[in-house]
Specification:
alpha+beta, 4 strands, 86 residues, disordered N terminus
Length: 86
């Protein structure tokens, strides 16, 4: 069904992939490491997948936008599915 591409670094950075109509990635990186973690993890993903199918990335809306844009990604759908306001 699915496979894990990346490994967590100190449990804080990681990536997972699940098979489907296109390659879908879930990327996890703390904001202070986005500039280095995002390119490193996505370079690995592109190596694994390219150029087979469309690549979709799940990542929190509003985070890492500049870095993702520089890597050729553009927002297709944004969603904040949970947010706590005290």
């Amino acid at each position: 069904m699915g496979s894990n591409l990346g490994r967590a670094i100190d449990g804080r950075v990681g990536m997972a992939e699940f098979e489907g109509a296109f390659d879908r990635l879930w990327l996890v990186a703390p904001p202070e490491f986005e500039e280095t973690a995002i390119p490193a993890l996505l370079s690995n993903a592109r190596w694994e997948f390219a150029p087979r199918r469309k690549l979709s990335l799940e990542y929190p809306a509003g985070q890492g936008e500049e870095t993702l844009s520089q890597m050729g990604f553009s927002p297709e759908q944004t969603l904040i599915w949970m947010e706590y306001q005290a």
